Amino acid sequence: MMTTCLVKKCIQLLKKPLTHIYNVSLNSGAFPDEWKTARVKPIYKKEDRYDIQYYKPISELSVFFKNIRKVDI
Fold this sequence. Notes:
Blueprint: H1 4-9, H2 11-28, H3 33-36, E1 39-44, E2 55-60, H4 63-71
């Protein structure tokens, strides 16, 4: 999964292909499956760090999917 920082550094190279992919996706209503896959991380909440019940799952979506969700009306 690409980080936001990396995307920002490479935006000049990525903007044309991304614009094309976003336009095709919005027109067809289909998005690349990789963009819809989330990485789930456990985040510690409180008390015993060795007990799984004190963690909550946080899902991270692709930076590309987050951007297209903002555009999609």
